Amino acid sequence: MALKDLKDVTYYDLNNEINIPVNGQIPLNKDKEALAAFLTENVEPNTMKFDSLRERFDYLLDNNYIERDFFEKYDFSFVEKLYDYLNAQDFHFKTFMAAYKFYAQYTLRTNDNQQYLEGFIDRVAMNALFFADGDEQLAMDLADEIVHQRYQPATPSFLNAGRARRGELVSCFVLQMTDDMNAIGRGINSALQLSRIGGGVGINLSNLREAGAPIKGIANAASGVVPVMKLLEDSFSYSNQLGQRQGAGVVYLSVFHPDIIGFLGAKKEAADEKVRVKTLSLGVTVPDKFYQLVAADEDMYLFSPQSVEKEYGKPFSYVDITKEYDNLVTNPNIAKKKIRARTLETEISKLQQESGYPYVVNIDTANLHNPIAGKIIMSNLCSEILQVMTPSKINNKQEYDVLGKDVSCNLGSTNIVNLMASPDFGHSVEAMVRALTYVTDHSNIDVVPSVQYGNQQSHAIGLGAMGLHAYFAKNHMHYGDEDSLDFTKVYFMLLNYWSLKASNEIARERHETFAGFDKSDYANGTYFDKYVTKDWGPSRNKVVEQFKGIFIPTKDDWAALKADVMKDGLYHQNRMAIAPNGSISYINDTTASLNPIVNRIEERQEKKIGKIYYPAPYLSNDTLPYYQSAYDTDMRKVIDIYATAQEHIDQGMALTLFMRSTMPEGLYEWKNGRTDKMTTRDLNILRNYAWKKGCKSVYYVRTFTDNNGEVGANECESCSI
Fold first, then answer.
1. Which is it for strands 336-340 and 359-362: parallel, antiparallel or unpaired?
2. Ribonucleotide reductase large subunit domain spans which residues (predicted)?
């Protein structure tokens, strides 16, 4: 039976029965039945069979399904050994959603799309062999990490590894435009090219002159940023990987840009179609000065990028607005206009209520804690990538007179529950760093030279994490309580320590560091000050017990690492970032990123299929009390968790805020005596709280509206398992 002929299957109905309580109980057994039915009715009859492993690989190679070059770096006897090991691990999907997602989105299929050519073990083997690049021990190590789901490569890496016909391995890209038509044209072309090969694209528009600014002395000639946004949206829509996926992009603008109100207005439902952007995401970069002006309820000045660049000799994004604000205000050569700071703050919150946008990047916070020489000016599609950039200069031939540094994002995630069970935490992290190093070393985005150059200079990676709420629930910890904060501190300290150790070891092996290492806080040692003067080990009894048997570096260990790094350097300019990792977390049977769950039984709307239900990992009568919905959780607890992790993460995190349009009673004390409806004031308070706690960004605001409720296990708070 071919995949196109599948009918009379039972697994969808069985899965849907999870959300129907039976005698006050959640029937989790129905998900196990759905999983078994899916494997029996879908996977087994539609997987191509081979008499031997050799026959299988001969078929894949001869028919151009997998690349020959990487495969031939290994003796086939080793491939057989690798498979023997993987098969002995007895991997099984734990939920219907995990198996469904893998076979729907990740597994290799025949050219006619009617048969599966691999299962999970095969995809693990491809990833291990591909990223180890001929190193047999590393291949075994990576196979061990991935099959036990301690490490999960990012979607494009996991999906494309080893395939002969594939997209890029990188997750996303970050670009900038400067204030001239050549740069705008090159930027639009870059967006087309990068959207074609895969991954979301972030583009900074802050350097472009505002609407009405003069061009070559002609007053009111410039059209501003909104028309460029429209061009970019059309570009992403057009360049969609042969219709396989919608191109995705985000544009960033400084809150001190004169077009900021029009920029936000372009996303509103009621915006005129001439200016409205429907699919383009929006982000704003927010210096500390904005928060200060809002707190003082003062006017704020918006500055013309053209006049700022002329006065300072560098693009607007590279000027420190907080430091230079008073000088910019009093300088008669700087064109400016005035608005109320709180008016803009309210406009940001209104749009977040309506659409979830804009993302907010606290740009001064990002730069204050940046150990790399240079300036961070923006972020990516999910607000977790924060790397220094330099501007390019484009001539009339669309060539680079000055080749600047843009960014490609090379990502992967630890699975917190499983990494905590690793026989060797540090060795696991080293294998992950080496896999990510392969991605950055072999990424060759030559269609956008600034991205290619930035990657070659920085060797940057982004090792993250998923499953934090699953770990808390499994270990009977309430999200945001003192134990959970202590665990978060120690876990991400360890991830930082071991990723630094691995990067230092690679630099020593290769006698190579990232460009600019000598100007970094790693080279002068100041980055390590907080670690050599304070103990970062667990302090709560419960957390001490959880880390029993796991090496916890002391101040002396950090001092030794500091000396090693100052001597031999680091290979990677950046090492850590927390992506939202939505769909890939289902395959890992864990919770997404560091977020709390949305529902104990999560509802997913799948294209052409309908609703699929996913029970929270490790859901049982014991864990039920620890799985409170994000929508019923004080977002300050979420911010506290993210801020605690941020202390040890050199880049950023995709921090999502979850809000109800009607607030639960007693959740926020400032609502007492006021309306229970979500207001702009609520979002203002939470954004300010995140800034004060040291969060570098706020990714997205998700709002659960009053008419989106569903009767079922999600609503049954008294249900048991």
1. unpaired
2. 558-580
pLDDT per residue as tens digits for the range 554-573: 999 999 999 999 999 999 99
- Examine residue 358 and say whether the peptide bond preceding it is cis (omega within 30 degrees of 0): yes
Tell me how far CA of residue 326 lies from CA of 293, 319, 334, 365, 624, in angstroms: 12, 13, 12, 20, 54
Instruction: Please give the DSSP secondary-structure letter assigned to residue 617.
Output: T
Instruction: Give the SS3 label for residue 564.
Output: helix
Instruction: Return the CATH architecture of domain 173-403.
Output: Alpha-Beta Barrel (3.20)
| Same fold across 157-171+410-596+633-651 and 173-403 | yes
DSSP letter at 512 equals: -
Helix axes 76-88, 136-147, angle to 10 degrees: 20
Residue the block writes with tokens 């708070």? 717
Q: Which residues are catalytic?
A: 380, 382, 384
Over residues 660-666, the mean pLDDT reads: 93
CA-to-CA distance for 81 and 139, rounded, in angstroms?
11
126 pLDDT band, cuts 50/70/90, is very high
23 sits in the region (left: phi over 0; alpha: psi -120 to 50; else beta) called left
pLDDT surpassing 60 at residue 228: yes
In one-letter notation, the amino acid at residue 285 is T
For the chain, give every domain's residue range.
Answer: 157-171+410-596+633-651, 173-403
Question: Would you list the DSSP string of 262-320?
Answer: HHHHTTSTTS-TTT--SS-EEEEEE-HHHHHHHHTT-EEEEE-HHHHHHHHSS-GGGS-
Q: How far is CA 639 from CA 83, 300, 614, 635, 691, in A?
A: 43, 27, 25, 6, 10
pLDDT tens per residue across span 159-211: 999 999 887 888 899 999 999 999 999 999 999 999 888 778 999 999 999 99
Within a 13 Å sphere around the CA of 546, how many CA atoms are in the beta-carbon half? 25
Give the residue from 408, 464, 440, 577 showing the smallest Cα distance to 514.
440
Phi first, then psi: what are they for 393, rounded to 5°?
-125, 125
Class in CATH terms, 157-171+410-596+633-651 = alpha beta
